[in-house]
Amino acid sequence: MQWPNACSRGTIKAMTSTIDDDLPSDTAGRGWQARFFTIWGGQAFSLVGSSLVRFALIWWLTSETDSATVLTTATLASMLPFIFLAPFSGALVDRWNRRWVMVISDALIALLTALLAVLFWLGIAEVWHVYLVLFLRAFGDVFQSPAMQAATSLMVPKHHLTRVAGANDLLMGVVSIVAPPLGALLVETVSMQGTLAIDMVTAVLAIGPLLFIPVPEPEPKDDAKRSESFWQEMTAGFRYVWDWRGLFFLFMALAAMRFFLAPAFSLLPLMVTDHFGGGAFELAWINSAHGVGFIAGGLLLGVWGGFKRRTFTALLGLVGVGVLSLVFGLVPEGAFGVALVVMFIRTLMIPMMRSSVMTIFQTYVPPDMQGRVFTLLLSSISLMAPFGLALGGPIADTFGVPIIFVITGIGCLVVATSWVLNPTILYLEDHPKVESGG
Q1: What is the dihedral of CA 46, 40, 138, 68, to 10 degrees?
Q2: How much is the pTM?
């Protein structure tokens, strides 16, 4: 099939009107802001607590082992649930009450953190304990994340989804700025168990609003669809993505991108300690630069709005991440200030890619299919990460961490080139698959 290289404004407007008529209607209703942002605020506090835990555990592993292989193994432990459970959790989220999925997932994550805090308090915590807790916390996330994403599309009117996606990136940026220095301060002044205990408090703040505020559910299915088995629903998710070729190839591109990004992300602490000679506070500063970039990118996307085709905006973000990752790997040892600037600009490009892709899903994928499609995305990109991590750890231990960022940059640019050469990705919004596919 030949895909158009351009369309007139009239054609695009007519096409968009037809698509919107076929898409599910908004279920947000009046007063959606108060309901949604109360829940969103609770999740924001939980995100702060989780970020503190993540920083503390990664720094503990870095200071205790100074091993790239240990750090990549920790990252792998946190990804395994997404690889093996995401396709199943998506189908389950689409069948279950999404509000209670979020409540139970948040409670499970808090309980696991409490158990690890006890191990540190007793002085018997070991590296494998951290691996196990990271794995089990991710088990909770594999249900919580798609439930929140799917609920958002029903709580927020469609024409506000891009702004909410920008607000999410803004939140991530603020947390990335605040959490690392706070985590470094806590690591240096408070016990590990005290730092971990904060996550339990923030979990209560996340669960509280969910107990009192209703979360809309998709419209009830007809008798034929209601009788479908779990496996039929899961298969329908695979079939939906496979039949929409543009979405399928987008999944493949994002999975390839993850292959290159995963080791660089996990080895950033060693880049700070071994290459730049820094400590906990230097790692906090570079993570904060990452957060400032997120905020700037979210604000830029919110003001600009991106290109008319969101795939073009996502492509721009991917190219930017690739170029700046390459530059980051070439920063000399004594130029930590330059590294901060490069990290800021690199992260500024991420919201353009992430928010654009998420908005495409929330706009064109029907609500009763979003849980499955979103978790298939998580599974497909996570599936490639172990291969990148398996190669990245030994390469970094042998040749140094900077080479990983150089490889990451080149790899992202290769993926961007394949994106440009595949019109089914570039123009997938012109030919959406609006039916649920089963």
Answers
A1: -70
A2: 0.68
Q: Tell me if 360 sits within 8 A of 234, measured CB to CB.
A: no
Separation of alpha carbons 438 and 435, rounded Å: 8
The type of residue at 421 is L
Q: What is the number of structural domains in the chain? A: 1
CATH of the domain at 264: 1.20.1250.20
Beta-carbon contacts of residue 402 (< 8 Å; ≥ 6 apart): 271, 275, 329, 330, 331
Distances (CA, A) of 141 to 105, 129, 372, 437: 7, 18, 15, 26
> Which residue type does 259 have?
F
Range of the domain at 381: 33-215+230-430
- What pLDDT, in 10s, does the model give residues 397-429? 888 889 999 999 999 999 999 888 888 888 887
Q: Is residue 280 part of a domain?
A: yes
Pairwise CA distance, residues 158 & 168, whole Å: 16
Q: Does residue 7 form part of some domain?
A: no
Angle ∠(294,288,79) on CA atoms, nearest 5? 70
Question: Alpha-carbon distance 90 to 96, whole Å?
Answer: 10
What's the rounded Cα separation, in Å, for the pair 113 and 196? 6
Q: Is residue 208 part of a domain?
A: yes
CB neighbour burial string for 391-424, b if at least 16 within 10 angstroms, e if fewer: bbbebbbeeebbebbbbbbebbbebbeebeebbb
CA distance linking residue 336 with residue 332, whole number of Å: 8
CA distance 259 to 35: 38
Q: Is 277 exposed, middle or buried (0-12, 13-18, 19+ CB in 10 A)?
A: exposed
Give the Cα separation of 86 and 102 in Å (integer).
Answer: 15
The pLDDT tens digits for 174-205 are 777 788 888 888 877 877 888 888 888 888 88
